[in-house]
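Section 3.1: Structural characterization of target chains.
Under the original work plan, the team committed to producing a structural model for every single-chain target entering the pipeline before any wet-lab resources were allocated. The record below documents one such target. The sequence was received from the expression subgroup and is listed exactly as submitted; it comprises 480 residues.
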Amino acid sequence: MNFWQKIFLPILLLFLLLFNGSIYWLSSVVYKQDMRAQEERAATEQYAICVAMARDLSLLDRNDTLNGASLVNLMRFYEKYYAKQAITLRLYENDALLYSEDALTPRIPSGSGSLSMLTEDGGKTLVCVCGPIPDFEDYRLLYIRDISGVEQTWTRLQLLFFLVSVGVSMLLAGLLLLVVNRVTRPIAKLAAAADAVGRGDYSVYVPAKGKDEVAQLTARFNQMTDEVQEHVEQLRDEAARKQRFLDNFTHELRTPLTNIYGYSELMTRVPVSEDDRLRYLHYIMRESKRLNRMSDELFSMTVRRADEPETADVDCAGLIEAAVQTLQAKAGAKGVALLPEASVCHVRGSWSLLESLIVNFTWNAIRACGTGGTVRISFRAEDGAAVLRVADDGRGMSAEELAHIAEPFYRVDKARSRSEGGCRLGLALCSRIVRIHGAQLHFDSAPGQGTTVTVRFRAGHPPKKIPEILQLHDMLTCGV
């Protein structure tokens, strides 16, 4: 049974019971009152006739003419007079019938002033009243009046009530069906939308009208489908990122392993000179170091996932000075100038992680610059918060490259990165360090116009342990 039927049928049955029961009760009350009125009228008229006959009998008795013949003539006079009102009269003397000119055979009510309702064989309904005549107790007058017309009227009224009841019930059933369909239509739409969601269509939307519970349920359903769709899209993006990571990771491993295997096989199968052997060993050692660096950075990303760093108030100027000292020689070798700029400010965080953050950003900026390039490193207080910026005037990046810049193993310039020994895990680590410190990371870049990295630390926000699982750690844990 559908939901609308569960609402429609009980309400309709309840209405039919109440409505028809009310009509039956009302008609019964009115009918009984009408019958009681007929009985009262019969008793009143019978008594009035008895009083009139008592006067006539007194007159006959004074004239010494009270006998059977005079009683019959008197009864015929009254019979003729009341015949127009469908009233029949009988006269009894000590329960013996003295006068009767009708074909009715009613039972004589016993007792003075008794009343009886009866139905003759012909289907007539009669009201009878029998009582003594005042001052002439031996004589009893039986009053009989035909009320079949009243019964027929009530029969017609009952038929009319039935027809009205049927009509009103049908009308109400139609109106109730419309109302129930209107009320349950949003629920049916929700059910259809739920089926669509079950088939994977998360873009379904159900209009919510009104402010009742169904409208609130519809709004929450729409909110749920929006959130589910958003989560599904996030999972799809996550799957795409994992696939890109797997492709890049496989590609990164293939190159050093191929070189190591190739030079090792060459040395074992072909006689080579000592110089060539040393050169091949140098190649093998260089590729091994590259794999070792990659392994270290992967391990670092896995370990740092759950570690909660030791924090303190870190001097921003000291951080920049330490990073510049670390990279000054490499920058000089490439002909790149490092320009540190730091105001007096402090940030709450881990010295080692923040130093690693600045070193990674600065080293990427150095590699992006050509000879004669400039890298500016600044750490200033802005609006009560510390802001780190690393800006270079190098080759820059496109919008598409910026979208993937923080993914592990992603390379903007793959040939240059390999020649410089990078494995492109540094920015993934930097992104995690920024999140640990509750900061915001932003890249501004355009091809040929350099790149600016901005890290904005929120005032009074301590470093925290990141609860989410790192994508790389998930893949390694799953056996990638």
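The chain has eleven helices and twelve strands.
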